[in-house]
Amino acid sequence: xxxxxxxxxxxxxxxxxxxxxxxxxxxxxxxxxxxxxxxxxxxxxxxxxxxxxxxxxxxxxxxxxxxxxxxxxxxxxxxxxxxxxxxxxxxxxxxxxxxxxxxxxxxxxxxxxxxxxxxxxxxxxxxxxxxxxxxxxxxxxxxxxxxxxxxxxxxxxxxxxxxxxxxxxxxxxxxxxxxxxxxxxxxxxxxxxxxxxxxxxxxxxxxxxxxxxxxxxxxxxxxxxxxxxxxxxxxxxxxxxxxxxxxxxxxxxxxxxxxxxxxxxxxxxxxxxxxxxxxxxxxxxxxxxxxxxxxxxxxxxxxxxxxxxxxxxxxxxxxxxxxxxxxxxxxxxxxxxxxxxxxxxxxxxxxxxxxxxxxxxxxxxxxxxxxxxxxxxxxxxxxxxxxxxxxxxxxxxxxxxxxxxxxxxxxxxxxxxxxxxxxxxxxxxxxxxxxxxxxxxxxxxxxxxxxxxxxxxxxxxxxxxxxxxxxxxxxxxxxxxxxxxxxxxxxxxxxxxxxxxxxxxxxxxxxxxxxxxxxxxxxxxxxxxxxxxxxxxxxxxxxxxxxxxxxxxxxxxxxxxxxxxxxxxxxxxxxxxxxxxxxxxxxxxxxxxxxxxxxxxxxxxxxxxxxxxxxxxxxxxxxxxxxxxxxxxxxxxxxxxxxxxxxxxxxxxxxxxxxxxxxxxxxxxxxxxxxxxxxxxxxxxxxxxxxxxxxxxxxxxxxxxxxx
Length: 708
Prior knowledge:
It is a single chain. This protein is of the alpha+beta class. The chain folds into four domains: 295 residues, Beta Polymerase, domain 2 (2-Layer Sandwich); 61 residues, no CATH class; 131 residues, Immunoglobulins (Immunoglobulin-like); 109 residues, no CATH class. Helix content is 34%, strand content 22%. 36% of the residues are buried. About 3% of the residues have low confidence.
């Protein structure tokens, strides 16, 4: 008997028969996946499904939607998908805003579990249902990260007195019940200082719709998904789909590294049995040779499994023979070791090393005594040489002696003798200079009157001094522009700002020499059509504009058109999320927390706008189909409703629109296109997507009177 077969029968990690059929449908190769799906359709009982099982419905609908469309379960399955689409979108959008705040504050973060798997592998936020986003930070950043979460509308999810019992993370939640799990250790089972060093080193960068974030490497996503998935009983089956997704998507899985991390964390037995469970469902995902290689590379663990099998009453000759073979190889010390004993919980803190993040202002926090004198600093050690520039210093030699012999990496607290350092009273810089480069805007902008567009701008401090601002000062640093007439005369001097480095209470914030920051700048077209110039500039507020001394900053030509000449629209991104499902479009405004559906002709018009068709061409297509009387302005009213809800905005895209005519048929009869706004998201999310929704139309529609 193979020891793998023994654990396949004996392990405590079990999944329900319906869950197994759903997983087989999702992860087995063709045609076995279709066979599993056909068997599941016979066994399906939506009303009896628990929440962990419901989480498998979204990927099933996405994979087998056309087959489900011929079943009586289709609308309800679509409702489950719509439910998780809304819930995940709200979780991700709120979490993304908080992440931006953390990154702007210089906090190092790594995404993992559901949010990382969704972004990296699925490309569709609804496929992998979540209740929160999981973020790993360095322990010393915890107080600052918690304060930022509170600023972004999150609160601790339990009574405050429970916090002292949290050993690896704090669970936060906002008004929409969107969770944010703030981890200073990645796993509850291994809260030891330095245990996550490898995760930080292997983390990869990922572009999340323009936001560059770190995510765990595949081997670390596998480990954390497995351990988190089997932690509770009964186990939650979605982790098996996560494992399959990662293995399918990656060309090579470094299983040796997964096992090394499991060994370091005393989690070998859990991980091995979990992998063996997946092997029992799909040998394509976890081939036997993966587990065999693990065992042959770790004879100490192999011996443990064999002895466990014998202790459970297994007397098969092959198991005894293999144990004798291993006993002959292992040394006495290895035989006496305790490979699965768990160590004590160490709450002393994580690794303090970490370099400054590029594109983020540096910050040094200062602490005052009862006489308002600086008594200490919290800073990155590499910023020690900047203290003489960032503060007024009473004794340079005493400062040099104070900072001598400190490390250059990591961060910590520096005690300061009273009177040695003081915040600068004069904010004026020694030299004013900078390099500004426009990243993504054309040399000529064409906008409608009053239209707002964002451009990406790169700013470099190309002087030899820091741009610094102290808490309580008004002299922050911002990117802006002056609006000029075509002949260069000033129309409006003060235009919207984009923050570069602004004051924070009890901090000195600064941009170092040669540091480069990338930011978004809103350009607002004036109300009068004509030709203008956008002259970029930097400002130290209440002190001076950089252009007083630097005159080579870029300028952008701006042509402003009358509103009536702009016939085109675009999604009012960011913050607008949309997805098509058959003849219906789901639209979510994550900024306002609003949920809409557009069905029939309304969905057709929405998609025509996104495809680049102008309003006049859409109106002409409907006129040619003779569906609505022209004097009723049905199409115009629907587009006006999209604009009024700020779902779309004017766009100069006529030259990049689609080729060919837009054709409209009459398959929806005379159903007037309408935008349906549903109840508040928090109410929708509180609604059970199966038992609390219509059995005919599915979520978000409430049960009908004839539902039984």
